[in-house]
Task: structure prediction
Amino acid sequence: MENKFEQSKVPFISKLAYGMGDVGCNFSWMFVGNFLMIFYTDVFGIGMSAVASLMLFSRFWDAINDPLIGALVDSHQNKGKGKFIPWIKFFAFPTAVLCILGFVNVSNFAYGARLAYMFITYVVYEIMYTCVSVPFGSLSSVMTDDVNQRTDLSRFRSLGGTIFMTVIVIAGPLFLYKDNQPVPSHFLIMAAICAVIGFICLMFTSHWCKERIITEPVAKEKEKLNYLDVLKAISKNKALLGVMLSSFIGIVGAGMVNGLNTYLFRDYFGNVAIMAVSGMLSVIWSLIAFIGTKFVAKKFGKKEWIMYSATFSVVVYAILFFFPLENPMLFIIINGICYLGVSGFQVLVWALVNDAIDYQELQTGKRNEGIVYSAYTFFRKLANAVSGSMSSFALAIAGFNVNEVVQSEAFSGRLWKTYTGLYVAGYLLAVLVLKFVYPLTKEKTAEMLQNLSDKRNAANAE
Result:
């Protein structure tokens, strides 16, 4: 193998550009995720069963699509322009176009034609988006192998996602609806805005981000990628298994809790409007996490900080389980502090994935960034799918009665126990998996990177 390694220091402009890449991805993906289903039902007039079937099919498609795209990305030969950046440049534009096409109002078409339009545009959009998101996610693993620099890249990426969610949560419902009814033309306008902003951000990423760790075969004939062998190898990658399982459990737990938020404020605290305060404060919590995580992760290590801080939040919520709060503002403040505790799972997780890619290279001699990253993203998507349905089950277990405008006092008490209990169980299990499965402590990560550096230097000497 021919190994080329440049200075690990990543310029600030490149870190900013990488964060903008996440903004670019999210501006189309999250807008589609938040509003396309309701556009299908309320504007297209498609039955919920057909829409639900499409979404279910898309989950199965992800199981095939992500790893296949990851394998294609890994088999792409670097011809001097990078391994991942050419993919982002090429597929950013069709992704933007498909995002817009999904929100074109074809409600005047025959029902069968509407179904076909919905199916084709959504599935092709997912393919195009995956061709951007997998190489983008893999990109940070070849921008640097420095632990602190990777933490910075992960921080900037998490901040990019927060920026989008803040904008869409505030602006979306205000612009898309009039008198509580959807305005089809507004959906198309906002889709176009999101698509254009997303495309510009991804172009910024492509221009300012640089692949510094390059590993390519010396031989003229490129070695063919054996997909099954790679899958077998990643199944033995304890670092990847650890981050996948802990993320899956953490996302499912957090997703279920988030799904109960509206009910908690409405039926337990009796004040759903105060959720807006919680939403605005979340920006402050995110900025604190963005700034502070760099220092604590450097001092304690990524794995260690996630475990310590998340355990603190688990203990706080375990206390709340037994001692309920009645003041919603006090709860919002305590919940914000606990968010800082579990924020390591969101802020540092991408750095853990990069370390898992290095762990793969140390074990096999090959990086396989695309397949390793896509295996992780598949678990994230699966967790998001599971958490959505599990929130409904949790409400049913708590005794929610859809026929009652005002829920019973017994339900509100069970809702508090369910909410806090799910928080404790989800994050506690995620911490335990990280502790006992994920092997890369601060010291072992440094040792792994040193071993890789020695191997690369030895290969260059030959």
